[in-house]
Design a protein that fits this description.
Length: 210
C-alpha cells in the first residue's frame, strides 16, 4: 500500500484548536475534513496526516520554526495557508508590514521546501470575507491584504505544484449565500467554511497525480 505523509502548515485557520502535544491531531478545521475526504477518495493509500499550524502565526513565524515544524518532518506533501495575520496584526497601528518583507519570509520557506525535501507544495490563498457586522477589520484591512494576496499568487506561480485561490473562491461563494455562512468574523471559518476549504483542497490534491 502506498504511503503519503501530508503536512498542514499555517495559522489559526489551520491550527483550529488542535492538541499541539500530538502532531497527528488535526483540530476541528479544514485539515480534519481534508483527511476524511482523502481517506474516502483514496482507500488504497495509507495517509499520515500532520498539523503544525499555530494560531496567530505570520509568514515570519513560519520562517522561524520551519526547520523543526516542516523540514525535519520530511513530508511527501506540504500545504501552506498563511498571510491574513501579516495584515491583521498590523492594522491597529496602520503601519502595514512591508510587502518585500512578507515576500522574503514566504519565499524563504518555499525555497527551503524545494532545496531540502521532495515534497509537493499546495499553496492556499489567504482570504477575507466582507461581514457587515461583527467583522474583525475596517475597510483599510482589505487594501493591504489585496497587495499581499498578489504576492502569494506570484509565489504560487513560481513554487506551487497546485494553488487554491481561496479569496476568489469565497467571494464567489458569497453570491447567493451570506458571508457569515462561511466565516462569522470574515476570517475564521465556520464548519461550513472549513468544509468548503477542504472540498477545494481535495480537488487540488487530485492534480498531484497520486
Amino acid at each position: 500500500m502506498k504511503k503519503i505523509r501530508l503536512l498542514f502548515q499555517g495559522d489559526s485557520i489551520t491550527d483550529a484548536g488542535r492538541d499541539r502535544s500530538d502532531i497527528h491531531n488535526l483540530g476541528h478545521g479544514y485539515p480534519k475534513f481534508v483527511a476524511e475526504m482523502l481517506k474516502a477518495e483514496y482507500p488504497d493509500i495509507e495517509f499520515e496526516f500532520m498539523n503544525t499550524g499555530i494560531s496567530g502565526n505570520r509568514a515570519e513565524s513560519l520562517k522561524a520554526r520551519w526547520d523543526t515544524d516542516a523540514i525535519a518532518l520530511q513530508p511527501d506533501v506540504i500545504s501552506i495557508l498563511i498571510g491574513v495575520n501579516d495584515t491583521w496584526h498590523m492594522d491597529a497601528s496602520g503601519n502595514w508590514m512591508p510587502e518585500d518583507y512578507f515576500e522574503s519570509c514566504y519565499r524563504y520557506i518555499l525555497s527551503e521546501i524545494k532545496e531540502k525535501t521532495n515534497a509537493k507544495i499546495i499553496m492556499l490563498e489567504q482570504f477575507l470575507l466582507f461581514v457587515p457586522r461583527g467583522s474583525v477589520h475596517p475597510a483599510e484591512f482589505r487594501t493591504d491584504l489585496d497587495r499581499k494576496i498578489q504576492i502569494t499568487r506570484k509565489l504560487a506561480r513560481e513554487f506551487a505544484d497546485v494553488f487554491v485561490p481561496l479569496d476568489g473562491l469565497f467571494a464567489a461563494a458569497c453570491v447567493g449565500n451570506p458571508p457569515e455562512k462561511w466565516a462569522a468574523d470574515g476570517v475564521h471559518p465556520t464548519e461550513d467554511g472549513a468544509k468548503f476549504i477542504a472540498k477545494h483542497y481535495v480537488r487540488a490534491f487530485k492534480k498531484l497525480g497520486f
